[in-house]
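Listing S7. Sequence submitted for prediction.
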Amino acid sequence: MTVPTLSRLNTAGKAGVQNAIQLASQRTGIDFNYLLGQAQVESGLNAGARATTSSARGLYQFIEQSWLGVVKQHGGTHGMGWASDAIRQTASGKFVVSDPAVRQSILNLRNDPTAASLMAAEHASDNKDALATSLGRDVTGTDLYMAHFLGIGGAKKFLSAMDSSPGRSAASLFPAAAGANRNVFYDRNGIPRSLTEVYSRFANKLDKGAAASGATGLASGAVDAFRLEPGMEVVLGSEAEAGDRQWLASTLEQFAGGGRTQAASATAINLMRPNPENARLAYLMLAQLGGNV
């Protein structure tokens, strides 16, 4: 079997990895700084990273079951239909692939920067929706990382407990996780860290990771995820320049399946023109909030 590859946009090294992460951010709406910071923390932007104590592999250190689950759910959207179709879920909830060679090919995609970034972004988007519903507030990058670290159920438990008892020992709430990650839950003197302290350390790690990789914003702050609907019509104000209209039209065409952009009069919606490349995605959010659908 010839396995398709998604990495034709990637070049060797960190520049290619960042291109893959940027693509995942554009396609899913998950913040680029968060995805970059997470990859830096998890693997140092090493697409071939391997854990020594688990089955975790790749930029985002997906373990086997987590990877099979997210590919089953989202792979078909991103050119991995062959993989998604090969995965089935048993009555017990386990994800399996009947053909051992195909299973290994699917697992090997964890080392493909584009595939890994797309699936990490989709996983973050799923977690964001679940956390927002549970917590009743905006979700931050650190919240998402807690879901990555503890699972969505563990993150809900952690964040709810932190809201009510921020000084509580995190290890007392998650003894198994603390046993496997003593450096996270205890300081150098063996003193248990509080929920707030654990949370703050992850926030700092995300921000430092993003900064070390060249990001210009925080990875730990609020994370916006939005979806473009096919046929969406966006009306831009007179302050939008022709180049921006062309860029937005092509982006909508690619990711929304045929969006339409029209020039408008001075009384129409006015959109600020961002300068950094990744900030230009703000057009899409503003358009979705104020455009004609």
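Caption to Listing S7: primary sequence and predicted structure tokens for the chain studied. The two ends are 43 Å apart (CA to CA). Residues 8-12, 224-249, 251-293 have pLDDT under 50 and may be disordered.
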